[in-house]
């Protein structure tokens, strides 16, 4: 096989995989993991069930790929918001705002927070969340401590607590009615900011 033919074959394979992920995302969001059939996903892109098995071992593996793409996209958006900030505190606050907004999205909320634990099982879902998001949270907190905007605390323990707060916020926003999400998001943004902000150094009266 020539290099040109091999390249075209690879491009076609990548395009098919991307189309399968998009179709699976729609189906899982509309029908849930349990009620979604692989045949329907394949039919949505005029492919065969064999095309799915060429890329994914089973329905769970396909869902996991959808889940990881959603989380990578969300993490990239949060990281971009943080990088655009002027200081570590603003970076963390902007990243939090973007994260909570993503949790309000019906597709992200349903697939990551509602269907994820069902499809993957709680232990695997939690491990995936930690693998994808934990390090980013830890880096933001480390930057805050290194810059003096948070008092030095045990980093692992602090990260674990903040991770727990964000998990609770994500699940609550995903379960909430659409009309209630803006208010809930504002409340979580304010409360998490206050709780983490309580670790900020007290101002020195001599320099007040």
From TrEMBL:
GO terms for molecular function: DNA binding. Gene3D superfamilies: Tetracycline Repressor, domain 2 (1.10.357.10). The keyword Transcription applies. Keywords: DNA-binding, Transcription, Transcription regulation. InterPro entries: Homeodomain-like_sf (IPR009057), HTH_TetR (IPR001647), Rv0078-like_C (IPR049484). PROSITE patterns: HTH_TETR_2. The keyword Nucleotide-binding does not apply. Residues 37-56 bind DNA. Residues 14-74 form the HTH tetR-type domain. PANTHER family: HTH-TYPE TRANSCRIPTIONAL REPRESSOR NEMR, TRANSCRIPTIONAL REGULATORY PROTEIN. This is TetR family transcriptional regulator.
